[in-house]
TrEMBL record:
One of its GO terms (molecular function) is S-adenosylmethionine-dependent methyltransferase activity. This is Methyltransferase domain-containing protein. It comes from Nonomuraea mesophila. Keywords: Methyltransferase, S-adenosyl-L-methionine, Transferase. One of its GO terms (biological process) is oligosaccharide biosynthetic process. Pfam families: NodS. It comes from the Bacteria.
Length: 231
């Protein structure tokens, strides 16, 4: 999404977040069904920026045998399909508020033997008995609003993790500092890595957390000119 349309898009959803939770949820469901009136409206399957972001996100992952994986805000399942290919034995869930997007995701994910499922729900409304080993939440938290709503969404993400499970948050930089703030302050998880990609068109941060971990954080922040600094 180019800069001006994105600013208008984000302004709209800041306004929507002023509504009560139920009204906000209805608006989000209807808007994203309308947004997906045509296939792949964000060009997630073809845009070079998005494809590069997927690769960078996967590169940031700790090695592990992830048996249960959740993608929050999966849209039409482009990244979900990549996860299914990389972890062919994992049970994978894609979560989204748009039933229209999920219908396309199910078409895309055909032939997976039933181990990939797509659920029509928002983050706070997703009930799951078994926790996940790996949870992705990308380009989503700015839709939930500020303050208490962001706090509850962050707590829900943490609650979905199995012991030792990994949570990956990906959001625009520097707004990610605010959006990831409640998870940063949660004593039950530890940030084990962070990478800031100062892309010329749209910088973003990838923050990786592990439930119950006490390992130090690795921070990698490429400068605009491509130099990499770490601490």
């Amino acid at each position: 999404m180019s800069r001006i349309p994105e600013l208008l898009h984000r302004t709209l959803f800041r306004t929507v977040s002023l509504l009560g939770p139920r009204a906000q949820g209805k608006v989000l469901h209807r808007y994203f069904d309308w947004w997906h009136r045509r296939p792949d409206p964000w060009s997630l399957a073809t845009d070079a920026y998005e494809r590069r972001k997927y690769r960078t996100t996967l590169d940031a992952l700790p090695e592990g045998a992830y048996a249960r994986i959740l993608e929050v805000g999966c849209a039409e399942g482009v990244f979900t399909q990549t996860l299914a290919e990389l972890w062919p034995d994992a049970v994978i869930t894609g979560l989204d508020v748009s039933e229209r997007a999920l219908a396309r995701a199910r078409e895309r994910g055909g032939g997976d033997g039933g181990r990939v499922r797509f659920v029509h729900a928002d983050l706070l409304g997703h009930e799951e008995r078994d926790p996940y080993d790996l949870v992705f939440c990308a380009e989503t938290l700015y839709y939930v609003g500020r303050g208490d709503r962001l706090r509850r969404a962050s707590e829900r993400l943490r609650a979905l993790l199995a012991p030792g499970g990994v949570l990956v948050l990906v959001h625009p930089w520097p707004e990610a500092e605010r959006l990831h703030g409640f998870v940063d302050g949660d004593p039950t998880v530890t940030k084990v890595a962070e990478r800031v990609e100062r892309d010329a068109s749209r910088p973003y941060a990838i923050s990786v957390y592990r439930a119950g971990s006490s390992r130090p954080t690795e921070v990698v922040r490429p400068a605009i000119d491509g130099d990499i600094t770490s601490k």
